């Protein structure tokens, strides 16, 4: 069983309880305008170019069989549509180029995960599968979570909840805690900001809750998009309707996606939007907490 993985982050402290290893899978059916992992959107491997690390040696120009690299008015441009992802330019480069996304077996990922087993034990941590959207690779995700559980590790699944009901129900047996995104409670706005409606996402959330699966609602709050009272009240109302939600996380906007989008040649829709100040985030937390029956905390 192989999956397309784009990062394995050890010592994570924001992706579930304790110290964790977070496995990021490639592929996502949503296109959130504020996405902070745009390199996860496509399921296939992608070439990233970090302009600030380029020393202008020209090796990539010479080696690419498809002539993807070219200078245009002094700017290094990459014809991405022609790129076959062969990695020859990456090998010839001093560090400005990389291929994002690698096929890994469950055992290869587990080898990385096991390295921090002692931290999981002492901190109450474990392994988190994230993305992208893990529901895009349901078999691999299930096998990985099951392998971790078999070894006695605590498992979290970070998901947008957008996928077939059958897949997410199947995951329940291998997931100790769902980190479930609530991006926008108004369906039309959800469609506008993420590219999909939220009906299926909410149905899936109610279905896993009915099964008794524990979850934390993860709410990205983006200034000028969903930082409004109607949304805050609806988040609280939603949590109050579910029996196994133990917490609400407010995830304040960060602009990490901007540089990442640039490196893979993508447009970033929120160029120039500033991350909120601490006081503003505290106010968001308080406004949700005023109506919610579970604790509301800032995460990240
Ligand atoms: S990965 Fe291969 S095809 Fe793509 S730009 Fe580099 S050398 Fe060219
Ligand atoms: S091989 Fe790397 S460092 Fe050299 S020009 Fe290409 S991107 Fe820049």
TrEMBL record:
One of its GO terms (molecular function) is 4 iron, 4 sulfur cluster binding. CDD domains: Radical_SAM. Its EC number is 1.97.1.-. NCBIfam families: PFLE_PFLC. It comes from [Clostridium] leptum DSM 753. Residues 45-74, 75-102 form the 4Fe-4S ferredoxin-type domain. It comes from the Bacteria. This is Glycyl-radical enzyme activating protein.
